[in-house]
Design a protein that fits this description.
Blueprint (H helix, E strand, L loop, with lengths): L3 E5 L9 H17 L2 E4 L11 E3 L10 H14 L4 E5 L2 H18 L4 E4 L24 H13 L2 H7 L2
Parallel strand pairs: 1-2, 1-4, 2-3, 4-5
Helix pairs in contact: 2-3
């Protein structure tokens, strides 16, 4: 029985931007190494031959980090996974980890969380893409404006707005 899974968080839209191509590459590589499945969103194109579950989302409305984390943990529980490998852009990694770990605590699941080290091969600035349709991931300045608020917000408030 396979006990590992990979969770890949997109960083911007569409799938063709550099950050999402890197995320897809790292996630696909780890999934092949572990012979496991992936949980992600439509803007991360996992390589063919890897079992992939995509979160339900509406066009032009990507899911929040918390919604992806909640979906991923539920997916892990359904598939009896005991470890999740997280792939996210370096600027988004702390919040992605926080959301996954908080969700695991909330449902009292027995899941260990790991980060794919390949993320660190790229500088924080290299994840920002001017060609993303989401302005917040085009530059560090735009990202920090929003991220500071979300990271400092008490989690009980964050849950209300990030659903």
């Amino acid at each position: 029985m396979k006990t590992a899974g990979v969770v890949a968080f997109a960083f911007g839209v569409p799938s063709s931007i550099r950050s999402n191509r890197l995320i897809a590459l790292i996630a696909s590589k780890r999934a092949r190494e572990l012979d496991c499945r992936v949980y992600t969103q439509f803007d991360v194109n996992i390589l063919p031959g890897i079992e992939t579950t995509y979160i339900n989302q509406q066009d032009n409305n990507p899911p929040t980090t918390l919604r992806i984390a909640r979906g991923a943990v539920q997916w892990a529980v359904i598939h009896r996974l005991t470890e999740l490998w997280i792939v996210a852009a370096k600027p988004c990694l702390d919040r992605a980890l926080r959301d996954v770990q908080q969700t695991i605590r909330e449902i009292e699941a027995e899941i260990k969380v790991y980060v794919c080290a390949e993320i660190n091969q790229y500088s924080e600035d290299s994840w920002f893409c001017m060609d993303s349709s989401q302005p917040r991931v085009r530059s560090r300045k735009e990202w920090r404006k929003r991220e500071r608020i979300l990271k400092l917000m008490p989690f009980f408030l964050y849950k209300r707005i990030a659903n």
